[in-house]
Design goal:
Length: 669
């Protein structure tokens, strides 16, 4: 079998002295050209910016490494000219790569070409992601190539990640020099645990498709992502695998930490990073720690850091100063967060307690279901609570109480599952309403009524952070006592004797329009002109203001974003033309439930079913011509059995004291 061979010369050098190597290293004489069956030989010389073998702090390729080489026959079936090569031997610092034939790998069916002038090679091989050579689009152009930044397989001894892309460029017949495209974080982790997984979350895109200027002396990678917001901001390294032992499937592997420290390495794009690390050991214990926006990563350099693994007694929901009015919990465990407002202002008081809760488990008048939350306490300026195994979905409002039994501030703990972001028309939006226990989708729901109760989420008066109980059925409510009773699936902590927290109410006069005053009345709808915050700050639902009801990193959707979703929708879709379907899908992907509203005059829920029914979704902007009105989109099911907005635009001006739905979008990075 005739195979093309690539000869690559590698220099052994300490990984911690990369910068010095660039100045001191000389170029070895190239190896002699070899040509077999007109397959040109590609060669590379010693270069201090080649792949790091971190286990031995050497720069080298290893037998079995697979690289991508862009020098195939370019035609309509292989427009990127992509071929794969595998390292078959390493001797005297020279790695030999052989073309993998189609017989060995059916996906590598393209034949190398001697006519392509420009040759680009990358490691690690990303055969499915490197689908375009010099692709078009934002971030790409002439002289760039698309590669992939992901958390790949990891050596259980060296923590060597595959997410450290390097790239080489040469003209046909010239030497290839592999260079780094990103930097490397070195964590020295001390402890006695055996690590099963490390998850890195960032405020920047760190995973997915990346653009690299391959002809540059310093090819700096720019990560552009894949468009999936649930993956682009995260790298997950798994050090375990499933194996069958004595006919049972067991989890094996993991990396044993040493008391004097075990080095862990992670490839990251150049820049200043605000990272949150979540370490999980083989016993399921978790440690969560942040970098506080101070971690600087440079291309082709190693940035050292150190920490000690000690499983936290509570999972921190507010690392890196990620303070919010709403925290999302999607698994059992013990949690904590700093008692601070979104702007970082400290909340003081004598104790913490639950204020009210909603969900299927809420059936007893004054008792918080133990299936939702336990062990609420406040210590050293932090709130702690425990979510039990098999917890019930819903929402628990926690508050800090002062010496006068007034609430100082409240937070919504949102117990849900499977919460995802959706990318549609450039808008990164949550797949459900704020406070919804489930993703609303009548088409896949077993019982419509259950979906209506749990899938609509909370209501909010315009500009107010405090949620109001969502609608609890499919028809209009007629009683002014609509907030009461077990059938409403809500419970109030009347036993705590908190001032202003006895029963749901409406038309409350808070004698002011601040969030602080409104927070003292979390279960009372404010009267006209008394909705906290709306008249003084037209952007108070933005990311870091104290009015923002969304989790950290999100804000309330704005008008232009809602308009984009509406304009990209299909008016012929079934849930646009059939009023019996209690939802509408915008931009063919984002479901908006028909949730109705709460009337600010009497607190009743209105128009949740039938023709002429509607839902109002707030924007994060006020009506500039009327301080008594907020702005939103009214999704309207007309008498002609079709769906529309109130007008050709999604704009709807509405009295700010009414309660409407909120949908959160990711804050632009």
């Amino acid at each position: 079998m005739n195979m093309k061979k690539i000869y690559i010369s590698i220099l052994a050098v300490a990984a911690m002295t990369l910068a010095a190597c660039n100045k001191e290293q000389h170029i070895d004489e190239p190896v002699q050209d070899v040509v077999e069956n007109n397959y040109p030989v590609l060669k590379a010389v010693i270069d201090p910016e080649t792949k790091m073998d971190l286990n031995g702090t050497q720069l080298s390729f290893e037998v079995g490494d697979v690289i991508s080489v862009f020098n195939g026959i370019v035609d309509e079936t292989n427009h990127h000219g992509h071929c794969k090569y595998k390292c078959t031997s390493v001797e005297d610092g020279i790695a030999v790569f052989e073309w993998i034939t189609a017989d060995e790998d059916a996906d590598n069916k393209y034949t190398p070409s001697s006519t392509v002038e420009t040759i680009v090679a990358s490691y690690p091989n990303r055969s499915t992601a490197t689908a375009e050579f010099e692709p078009e689009g934002e971030g790409y152009g002439e002289g760039t190539v698309k590669i992939r930044m992901v958390a790949g397989p990891n050596g259980t001894d060296s923590f060597l990640p595959a997410s450290l892309p390097i790239i080489a460029y040469a003209q046909q017949g010239e030497l290839l020099r592999f260079k780094h495209t990103c930097g490397l974080l070195k964590l020295t982790v001390k402890g006695t645990a055996k690590i099963a997984q490390v998850k890195i979350e960032s405020d920047k895109i760190i995973s997915g498709n990346a653009s690299v200027p391959y002809a540059s002396e310093k090819p700096l990678m720019t990560v552009l992502g894949t468009g999936d917001p649930n993956k682009d901001y995260m790298l997950t390294y798994t050090y375990t695998s499933k194996e069958t032992v004595d006919e049972e499937t067991v989890t094996v592997g993991g990396v044993q930490l040493e008391e004097n420290g075990t080095d862990m390495y992670f490839g990251l794009p150049e820049g200043t990073h605000n990272l949150v690390f979540t370490f999980k050991d083989m016993d399921g214990n978790i440690m969560k720690v942040g970098t506080n926006n101070s971690l600087v990563i440079k291309r082709a350099e190693i940035t050292p850091s150190a920490l000690t693994f000690a499983a936290d007694p509570a999972i921190n929901l507010s690392p890196n100063k990620q303070y919010a009015n709403c925290y999302v919990v999607q698994s059992a465990g013990t949690y904590m967060f700093d008692a601070k407002k979104p702007n970082g202002e400290e909340v003081t008081g004598t104790s913490a307690t639950w204020v009210w809760a909603s969900g299927d488990a809420c059936t007893t008048a004054e008792t918080l279901p133990t299936t939702m939350m336990n062990d609420i306490k406040m210590e050293n300026g932090k709130l702690f609570f425990t979510i039990p195994s098999g917890y019930k979905y819903g929402n628990v409002i926690l508050g800090v109480v002062d010496a006068d039994n007034d609430l100082s501030w409240t937070w919504n703990i949102w117990l849900t599952s499977g919460l995802q972001d959706i990318m549609a028309e450039g808008v990164v939006i949550m797949d459900r309403n704020l406070g919804a226990a489930y993703k609303f989708d009548v088409a896949s729901a077993g019982e419509l009524n259950s979906t209506l109760i749990c899938g609509k989420g909370h209501f909010y008066q315009w500009g107010r952070k405090d949620p109001i109980l969502g609608s609890r059925g499919a028809t209009d409510e007629t009683s002014t006592t609509i907030f009461s009773g077990a059938s409403q699936k809500s419970v109030i902590n009347t036993g705590a004797s908190i001032n202003n927290v006895l029963t749901w109410g409406y038309l409350g006069d808070f004698n002011g329009v601040t969030q602080e005053l409104g927070s003292k009345y979390p279960i009372t709808m404010a009267d006209e002109g008394k909705v906290p915050g709306y008249s003084t700050d037209g952007t108070n639902w933005t990311s870091r203001t104290n009015a923002n009801p969304c989790p950290y990193g999100y804000r309330v959707i704005n008008k232009s974003e809602m308009q984009k979703l509406y304009d990209a929708s299909d008016p012929e879709a079934a849930n646009w033309t059939n009023t019996s379907i209690a939802q509408v899908t915008l931009a063919q992907s984002v479901i908006f439930p028909r949730a109705g509203m709460r009337n600010g005059n009497d607190g009743q829920a209105k128009k949740m079913a039938g023709t002429g029914s509607y839902s109002v979704y707030w924007y994060d902007e006020v009506d500039p011509n009327n301080a008594q009105q907020g702005m939103g989109c009214r999704l309207y099911w007309t008498n002609s059995s079709t769906f529309s907005t109130t007008s050709s635009s999604t704009e709807y001006k509405w009295n700010a004291r009414h309660g409407g739905c909120v949908r959160c979008v990711r804050v632009a990075k």
